[in-house]
């Protein structure tokens, strides 16, 4: 009889462990703050803006501008603008003669081809060619905020 009891308890422990493992990313409802009273919600709703602020293109463009403006004087000089290009050119100009020969320019492509050509046949199969594709970063997904509801009915039953 004790074998059945121990087996049942072990089964329950395994089921509980499975639930914990599969739900480890789910947020606990107990961790959420309590909702304020309805009277406080009505006052807070009046103070909230109608739209959510978003980053504008000017903000992104300002960040890009600031990356180029190394001396932070509010202007991007020709030297500041070309500095990044010079670094890339210097990496490719292996003999440092100030000119870029085709072989120097193609060295990165040659290396990429050699890595992709796994069987060293001098030609790439479709599977090998797929390895040369540019690796793009996946779009950043924000999981810390629940999706915003588009059309919500007013809380007090009145038309807005």
TrEMBL record:
Residues covered by region (Disordered): 45-71, 134-160
Pfam families from the UniProt entry: EF-hand_5
Matching InterPro entries: EF-hand-dom_pair, EF_Hand_1_Ca_BS, EF_hand_dom
Single Gene Ontology MF annotation: calcium ion binding
Domain EF-hand span(s) in chain numbering: 56-91
Annotated signal peptide: none
Segments of skewed composition (Basic and acidic residues): 57-71, 141-153
Protein's name in the database: EF-hand domain-containing protein
Gene source species: Sphingomonas glacialis
């Amino acid at each position: 009889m004790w074998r059945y009891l121990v087996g049942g308890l072990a089964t329950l422990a395994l089921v509980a462990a499975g639930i914990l493992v599969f739900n480890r990313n789910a947020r606990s409802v107990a961790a959420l703050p309590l909702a304020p009273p309805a009277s406080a919600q009505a006052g807070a709703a009046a103070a909230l803006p109608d739209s959510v602020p978003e980053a504008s293109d000017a903000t992104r463009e300002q960040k890009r501008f600031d990356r180029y403006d190394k001396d932070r004087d509010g202007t991007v000089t020709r030297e500041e603008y070309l500095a990044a290009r010079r670094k890339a050119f210097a990496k490719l100009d292996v003999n440092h003669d100030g000119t870029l020969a085709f072989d120097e320019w193609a060295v990165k492509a040659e290396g990429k081809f050699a890595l992709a050509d796994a069987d060293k046949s001098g030609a790439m199969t479709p599977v090998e060619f797929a390895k040369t594709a540019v690796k793009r970063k996946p779009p950043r997904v924000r999981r810390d905020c629940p999706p915003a509801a588009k059309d919500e009915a007013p809380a007090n039953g009145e038309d807005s």
